[in-house]
LacI family DNA-binding transcriptional regulator (Georgenia deserti), 346 residues
Amino acid sequence: MGSRPTLEVVAREAGVSKATVSKVINGRDDVGPTTRERVQAVIASMGYMPTTGRRTKDTAPTVTVLFDAFVNLYSAQVLTGVVTAGLEQGVDVVVNHLPAGNGPGALSPAWFRSLAGRGHAGVIVVTTEMSPEQVRSCSAAGLGLVAIDPVSIDPSTTDRLVSVSATNWSGGMQATEHLLSLGHRRIGFAGGPPASRPAEQRLHGHLAALGARGIPREDDLVHLGGFAYEDGLAMAERLLSLPDRPTAVVAGCDASALGVMEAARARGLRLPEELSIVGFDDTYAAEWTSPQLTTVRQPMTEMGRVALRTVLELSNGMRPETHHFELATTLVVRSSTTPPPHAAAA
């Protein structure tokens, strides 16, 4: 067995001073990006373990959680699950935010090597699209990787990328079946981004519920815009401007459902008497609305816990139970849904 590489050996191999290697190890920002990447590559290739500064053997393992959009209720509840599981497992959780457009260096091979060089065990990415190259770079750095509600999954990464999500198709069906059971037949859909896998699955569940009742899809009633409040507002404006407007709307998430509510109020519609609304997520806000929001609960906190436990197992060389965990959704009925006016009159 060869001798353990020293700081001096790393510096010589990278063609820099020992002081520069030390700065890279300790995360100092006064090292040029090209030099930093070269040093990190040498550290990773030699398996260098610093004897000063950050130590990985004597400290708790660290997991990075990367969000594409951190300031929303969905992210807060997912993070609660990750942090709770981290406390149980003795793991430090570091939260990071992905810049718009991924930003320079984000999810690059150097970024993954940097985490590995600092002793991180793995990465959890939330609602973030990852290319096959990024998945391979994470694996090459020796990091565990788990995606929560990935935007999409490239077929070439199915044996490397472990994902955690809810039963989105079933949830979309549950939401629409609830409205159908109340007597609604003209139901609008204000969904998430067209490229989003969870949004697509929720739409397909919605359409399956309509199809089971013999109700054909009407394109005017289906909109895929986004998961933000403003997206719900915009999609509701189009739905409620139809000559024969819907009596109910299924929203892609709770945040966009709030936008639908505001658009309805701006038109003077009474909720839920003139418009029933169903959300998706069951975030804290669902009980704060007036009326309280009927929604599909996805177990976001448990999704975070499963992701944290799984990324630790992967970092320890264990094989995952499955490459795609799906946790069950449940419908939570509150006061934002009621029979349509014609059914109430009948």
